[in-house]
Each structure stands twice: as structure tokens, then as C-alpha cells.
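Hi R.,

Here's the chain you asked about this morning:
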Amino acid sequence: MTAIAQPPVTPLAAREPLPRGVAAQSASSIASGLDLAKIRADFPILAERVHGKPLVYLDNAATSQKPRVVLDAIAHYYEHLNANIHRGVHTLSVRATEAHDAARQTVRRFVNAHDTREIVFVRGATEAINLVAQTYGRVHVGAGDEVLITAMEHHSNIVPWQILCEEKHARLRVAPIDDRGELRLDEFEKLIGPRTKIVAVTQVSNALGTVTPLREMIEMAHRRGVPVLVDGAQAVPHFAVDVRALDCDFYAFSGHKVYGPTGIGVLYGKRALLEAMPPYQGGGDMISTVTFEKTTYNVLPFKFEAGTPDIAGAIALGAALEYIGAIGMEKIAAHEQDLLAYATEAVGAIPGVQLIGTARERAGVLSFVLDGVHPHDLGTILDREGIAIRTGHHCAQPVMERFGIPATARASFAVYNTREEVDALVEGIRAAREVFA
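And the predicted structure, written out as C-alpha cells:
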């Protein structure tokens, strides 16, 4: 992957003291080569206090916090560049267009796409999946055809395909998972049949943290001539993604889970597929010519970007990807794997805790239930200690049904989290257990 320039870093001295002894390097940050105190200082919100306690933010699978460089990129756009893009010859428009184009190039490098024309800016992974379902899907899926997903998908990679299948009188097939939360790869392969028109699968489960055997899955589908869409929303924050090495046909992710702003995301698609797909929406900038008799469409990627885009969001997403690229995805992955292993052992040792999802390869997520305590009650008690986790079905109700539970408590990790914060989580769970006992 092309090296990404080092972003500016806010000096540690400009921040409030770090909570729970984090100013000292934790074992995980030393092992991974990260300067964790310096990284944490880049995230202003980590200095917040909740109910008088230092914030321990462990809800990163829902949305990650934003480094100063991302906040500055948004402010800089509105203070110095604010103008519409691709339409003006005046200086501000030219500068805004150049910054937006540079962000697209940053995304291309980050996922190792061949061409910026393969990078479409959307509102998030949800819109990216809907775009493919309503363009490629509508053209290629007909009555009696099949769409294949897995039993660990987020609702965003279930509902769009259900809508398509209902409209086209097609069938949604679901590859099962086992009691560890791992995909049953043999069953997945059996479900790829002559009527399968597209496979849509997650790379990392948001509810279980399971990392799917994506390369094998893509190879299985391609041997039968079936394209593959990958929901990468939970993958891109945790390890390097190379769409050419994966050979996926489509790849979707959201900016807000990878330290960027909300309301911006990316659809990668192989150029030949995108060229053949009809537009998703109509309006300005996605056209070449318009008459009352006929409209011709713009070139890629603009054919899929109708209307004024989230210009500041795209620029800030570029800043976020540059930021983590400068840290190093290998270092981030090593640090988070250490945290996950540490948390799995520590939380799993608490009497009454049952871990949900124990796949041999996981990323970033620890889901669990505590006997006698509803996850919502646990989340409320932890919040009183300043600890933010997610409770509920995590927009993955079929996963909950598979394990026979209504909800889980979910701690999810990011580059700025520490072992000390895991210790705080463990203390909070033990305290909640005593309250309900």
C-alpha cells in the first residue's frame, strides 16, 4: 500500500490528564509500538467526564471517536473552502473540488483500488449496499433467482436484499453459523447454485466480531461466476483491506466507524460492473446532457453521485484514513488483538458471564450476557461509572435468535483504548453482578 503522509498531532500537553493511569504506556501499546498517550491526546472527547467519572468509550463498533485532524478538516473546509464542486470556475470552487478529489484518491490508496473511478462516495455502508441491490440487483435478479447472505449479517445487509427478492419474486438464501459464531463454510459453498446471482457477506460481524474466511468465500463464488459484495464496515477500522487482493466485486464501508464523520461512506466497485449498472438516483452532477426527450449520464464515479455531496465529510474521511495510515494498520491490529484477548480472558472469568461469539478469528468486538442481569440494566449501571458499551440486538436480530437470547452487552475496541479501560469494564461488571445478586 502507498505510504500515507503523517498528519499533524496535537501535543499531549494541550490535553487534560488521561484517566485511570493511562498516561503510562500499557503493555499492549508497548508490544504494538504505539505511543498510546499521544494517540489518546489526539481525541478531544476522551477528556470528557460522564457522571463525574473519566469517559471509558467502548462502543466503537457503533461509531468511533474523531481525532483532532478530522475535526480540523471539517472546520477548515467551511472556514476556507466552502463552495460547491465540479460546477464553478471561481477560486473557492476549484479549491473545494481539488480537496474532494484528493480525498477520493486517499480512499483509493487505502483500499488499494485500481482507479478512483471505482470509488463512489455515499452516505455510508447502508446506502452502498442499497445502491448495489437497486442497480446491479434489479438488472440481474429475476423470478426464481437467489441471493446468498450469511446468518451473521447486519440488518443493512439483509433488508435491501429482502426488498429486492420480494420485488423480483426471488429467494434469499442464508448460510448458517455454528455455536462459536463461525460460518459453516461447507454449507455456504453448497448454497451457491445455478440460480445464485449475487453473494453479499460481511467481513467482520458487528455482533460477534467473527472474521469470515472471505478469500475462500469469494473464490467459491467466482468459480461459479457469481459476484460478491462485501460489507466491510466493521473491518476497515481494524486491519488493512486490499480489494484487489480479495478480488471482491463490491466493497462497502462507513466513514464514522473508521474515525471519520457521520453521513459519509464508500462503495468500491469493479469498473466494468459499475459502468454497466444504471444510475441509483437522478439529479445534478450525475448527468452529461439533459433534454426533455433524453438524458445521458456522467462518467464514473459521478454517475452514482447525484446532487451536492457531503464535501466536508469526504475531505474529513480522507483525513481520518491518512491519520490511521500514518499510525500503521499493522500496529493498530496488533494493539486491538491484544486488547481483545485481554478482555476475553478477564470478562470471561467473571462468574455468571457467558461470551456470545467465540470464533477463533475475531476483531474488535466482545459480546456477552450476565446471568440475572438484562443487558440494558448492565449498560445503565456501567454508564454511571463513565463506561460506554452497547446493549441490545445490534441491528442483528437473526444472530440473537440463533443464540436464543434477546440481546447482548457489547464492548468494542479502537486504537485509543487501553488495558486499564478493560480493567474498569471488569470492575463495573462485577459491581453490577453484586447489585443484582
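The chain has two domains: 12-41+328-436, 71-325.

Let me know if you need anything else.
M.
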